[in-house]
């Protein structure tokens, strides 16, 4: 079922049921165990390494399906492949890194921790984010940061239509073009403290070849916070 | 409300009655739709239009004061390793801390625990007080995901994935600025005092196939221990029930259009969804066709006021019911002793529905600390517990009269309808028109047609 090689616990999802893997990872919240895990043959399985609550590192050697590392706490999850919908949804803390691209709703409603997507993220990246930091080396799709509440989204490439629609207090940084801004989302001045903030996030994400001063900043115009009839046309 | 007796010759329009006129005037004055709490106020076909056929010569009853009529219910037997066991088939529906004050939420927990049933969180997360005072607590996962975290998920006794609400099927939650206190704002990661309008779609799944994967994730996170409920507002109930079962729900929570809300547009409350009475047979039919009736449990809410309503919902095939508005009234909402204060707010005891406004003199639907402090959660909890006991006793009374040793043994055959609408919706015969008589009439008509 699993073998120990050089201190790394290897779990082969071609032979081990997903339930068994997740149960063992969950048990680490209560008991001692391996701190470095490799999951081989993920074959796009859903809910791999979701609900973790331990200081461990999990490497997934291939593509992951929906909700990989969902609701993650403390753990570092690296996907050496692409990830499906809802990657690291509602993450609390820790770090999730995808070497490939991520499908829709990456980092949705995340409350903390860092999500790094080295490829592109699809639609609704950072939807309803609540404190998470997300760094995307490539581009993000439409309706990214929809109703984003707090946290920071850094996009080194382009953003699709309706970026930051109905945004609250999250801070968005996009280096490339933005196809369109959503309701109540406006471009704001990129001041020195913002360049420092972007530089810090890029550093945490391990991205060295991007100039932090080359981003534009977006955030809430705060015109829709109070429900006024004069704003009805905004929707 | 002031009363006015029109003298002969003064004729009020049926189409433009005083309420319609007042609403047009309000709309012209304010330029925004009316937002309020409570549930549908219009007259709808409901459980009042059904009657039980008590036992007689053809059936015999149970001894009303002596023989046991069980009321327990187990929820989540399909997949969960830890189903929840309730002593009565009446649960408390999801109502948020934010919509309700902390003491009011505590009272619901106390009441549910006292009588052995469950209570439910709401669109705002789980409070420590609520968890502490609730023996069995259902944790809602809503589109907004306000207050959602894996620790509370694991602390919960069941998870309720909310897709819709009877008062506003297709709509998201709403909490206006005067109820977004520091604590509510912190729990929801929102700026204080904004008008919160929640999303109506879940952020990380779309459609029934995704829902199946989402439920699987929740099961994995909680190690397949917790029952997962799926709550739907009653609309296309037959299809929604089948799809929720297919997606892997342990329990379907079906909220009819009479279900309450803390804050929604009046037009939504009154004009979207179908009545509870019409929805139950659709859900039961869907479950029966899938061979899942009683395997996937059905909880029905939306206008459950009395033990008769409880018994009728169960007879139509529900496993349990859920109450919201009734519980608030039991703990003191709209109580006559507050009439003077209600009148200062432009309402009156018996009419108050401005739960969105946060100025509730009872301290129930408010985040104002002074108002909330008026509400005693021990006394309020006791009242709700009493009400839950009465609902149960009344349901048992009717069940025993129908000869049932468990309230779940009530069945549609025990019911007749008073109106054609109720008969068609509930799929029970009009009183006096039971099947053998209808067959006889049909036979006579057929015979006459043959003669002709």
Main features:
heterodimer, A: 235 residues, mainly beta, twelve-stranded mixed β-sheet, 10% helix, elongated, B: 452 residues, alpha/beta, TIM Barrel, eight-stranded parallel β-sheet, two-stranded antiparallel ribbon, 16 helices, 37% helix, globular
List the helices and strands and how they pair.
The complex is a heterodimer of chains A (235) and B (452).
Chain A: E1 2-5, E2 8-12, H1 18-27, E3 36-40, E4 57-61, E5 76-79, E6 95-98, E7 114-117, E8 130-136, E9 150-155, E10 171-174, E11 185-188, H2 192-204, E12 216-220
Parallel strand pairs in A: 2-3, 3-4, 4-5, 5-6, 6-7, 7-8, 8-9, 9-10
Antiparallel strand pairs in A: 1-2, 10-12, 11-12
Chain B: H1 18-30, E1 35-38, E2 50-52, E3 73-75, E4 84-86, E5 90-92, H2 102-115, E6 118-120, H3 128-133, E7 136-141, H4 150-155, E8 158-162, E9 174-175, H5 182-188, E10 196-197, H6 207-221, E11 228-233, H7 237-247, E12 251-255, E13 261-265, H8 266-271, H9 276-289, E14 297-301, H10 307-315, E15 320-323, H11 325-331, H12 339-344, H13 369-373, H14 377-401, E16 415-417, H15 420-426, H16 435-451
Parallel strand pairs in B: 5-15, 6-7, 7-8, 8-11, 11-12, 12-14, 14-15
Antiparallel strand pairs in B: 1-13, 2-16, 3-4, 9-10
């Amino acid at each position: 079922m699993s073998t120990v090689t050089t201190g790394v616990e290897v779990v082969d999802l071609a032979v081990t049921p997903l339930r068994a893997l997740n149960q063992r990872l969950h048990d680490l919240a209560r008991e001692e165990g391996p701190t470095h895990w490799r999951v081989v043959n993920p074959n796009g399985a859903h809910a791999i390494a979701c609900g973790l609550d331990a200081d461990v590192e999990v490497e997934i050697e291939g593509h992951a399906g929906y909700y990989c590392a969902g609701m993650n706490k403390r753990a570092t999850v690296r996907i050496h492949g692409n990830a499906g919908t809802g990657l690291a949804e509602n993450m609390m803390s820790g770090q999730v890194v995808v070497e490939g691209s991520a499908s829709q709703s990456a980092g949705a409603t995340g409350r903390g921790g860092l999500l790094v997507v080295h490829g592109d993220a699809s639609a609704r990246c950072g939807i309803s984010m609540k404190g998470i930091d997300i760094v995307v080396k490539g581009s993000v799709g439409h309706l990214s940061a929809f109703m984003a509440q707090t946290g920071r989204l850094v996009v080194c490439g382009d953003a699709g239509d309706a970026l930051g629609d109905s945004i609250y207090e999250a801070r968005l940084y996009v280096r490339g073009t933005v196809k369109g801004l959503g309701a109540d989302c406006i471009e704001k001045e990129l001041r020195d403290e913002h360049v420092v903030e972007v530089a810090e996030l890029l550093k945490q994400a391990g991205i060295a070849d991007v100039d932090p001063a080359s981003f534009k900043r977006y955030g809430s115009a705060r015109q829709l916070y109070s429900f006024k009839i004069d704003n009805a046309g905004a929707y | 409300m002031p009363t006015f007796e029109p003298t002969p010759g003064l004729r009020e329009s049926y189409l433009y009655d005083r309420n319609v006129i007042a609403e047009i005037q309000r709309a012209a004055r304010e330029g925004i739709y009316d937002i309020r709490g409570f549930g549908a106020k219009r007259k709808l076909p409901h459980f009042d239009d059904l009657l039980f056929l008590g036992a007689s010569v053809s059936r015999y009853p149970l001894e009303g004061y002596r023989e046991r009529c069980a009321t327990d219910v187990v929820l989540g037997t399909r997949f969960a390793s830890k189903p929840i066991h309730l002593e009565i088939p009446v649960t408390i529906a999801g109502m948020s801390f934010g919509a309700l004050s902390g003491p009011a939420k505590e009272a619901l927990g106390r009441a549910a625990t006292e009588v052995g049933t469950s209570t439910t969180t709401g669109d705002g997360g789980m409070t420590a007080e609520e968890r502490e005072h609730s023996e069995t607590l259902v944790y809602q996962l809503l589109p907004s995901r306000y207050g959602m975290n894996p620790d509370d998920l694991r602390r919960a006794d069941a998870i309720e994935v909310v897709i819709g609400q009877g008062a506003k099927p297709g709509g998201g939650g709403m909490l206006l600025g005067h109820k977004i206190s520091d604590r509510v704002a912190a729990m929801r990661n929102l700026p204080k005092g904004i008008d919160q309008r929640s999303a109506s779609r879940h952020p990380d799944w779309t459609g029934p196939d995704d829902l199946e994967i989402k439920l699987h994730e929740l099961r994995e996170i909680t190690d397949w221990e917790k029952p997962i409920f799926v709550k739907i507002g009653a609309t296309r109930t037959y299809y929604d029930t089948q799809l929720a079962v297919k997606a892997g729900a342990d329990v379907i929570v079906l909220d009819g259009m009479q279900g309450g809300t803390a804050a929604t547009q009046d037009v939504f409350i009154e004009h979207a969804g179908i009545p509870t009475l019409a929805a139950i047979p659709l859900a039961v039919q869907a479950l029966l066709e899938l061979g899942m009736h009683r395997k996937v449990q059905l909880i029905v809410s939306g206008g459950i006021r009395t033990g008769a309503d409880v018994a009728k919902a169960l007879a139509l095939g529900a496993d349990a019911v859920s109450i919201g508005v009734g519980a608030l009234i039991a703990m003191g909402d709209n109580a006559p002793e507050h009439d003077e204060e209600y009148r200062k707010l432009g309402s009156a005891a018996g009419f108050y529905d401005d739960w969105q406004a946060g100025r509730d003199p009872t301290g129930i639907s408010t985040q104002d600390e002074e108002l909330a402090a008026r509400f005693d959660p021990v006394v309020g909890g006791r009242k709700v517990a009493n009400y839950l006991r009465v609902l149960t006793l009344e349901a048992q009374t009717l069940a025993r009269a129908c000869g049932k040793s468990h309230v779940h043994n009530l069945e549609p055959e025990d019911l007749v309808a008073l109106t054609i609408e109720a008969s068609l919706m509930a799929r029970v015969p009009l009183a006096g028109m039971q099947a053998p008589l209808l067959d006889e009439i049909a036979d006579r008509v057929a015979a006459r047609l043959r003669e002709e």
